[in-house]
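quick one: tetrahydrodeoxyuridine bound model?
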Amino acid sequence: MAKDKASGNEKLLIEAAKEVRTKAHAPYSGYFVGAALIDETGALHKGCNVENAAFPEGICAEANAIGAMVAAGGKRIVAIAAVGGAAELEPCTPCGGCRQKILEFADKNTRIILLGDDDAIDSHTIRELLPAGFRLR
Ligand code: THU
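yep, here:
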């Protein structure tokens, strides 16, 4: 995990993730997540978690942001931020399934930007978060 000085993009993505988190539909868990990413064209895509009364049908914020990117024609994730928490923000890392979804559109330079303790901005690679992730060869 790198704890570099936050770049402009990192702050922009965290702010976008916080903004879209306010739209999350999470009446069952009470845990609200927002994700924002920049694709290879520089376009911004956002998603929040959308839960369902049939619990397994809920969708994570990262998955929805990636879906928005793909629907807009984006191919690669340059950087993705995710923030979450119940009432207040707390350190929140992508679930295993979302790590695999990020891997699909990541390369070694893709940054995964998360809030750590005391609102520190932590920047990770997908390899750090998902060593030996599944790939079809
Ligand atoms: N959640 C996400 O949106 N992303 C993650 O990576 C972890 C979990 C959502 C799913 C569910 O709506 C709520 O957080 C609690 O698990």
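The longest helix spans residues 8-21.
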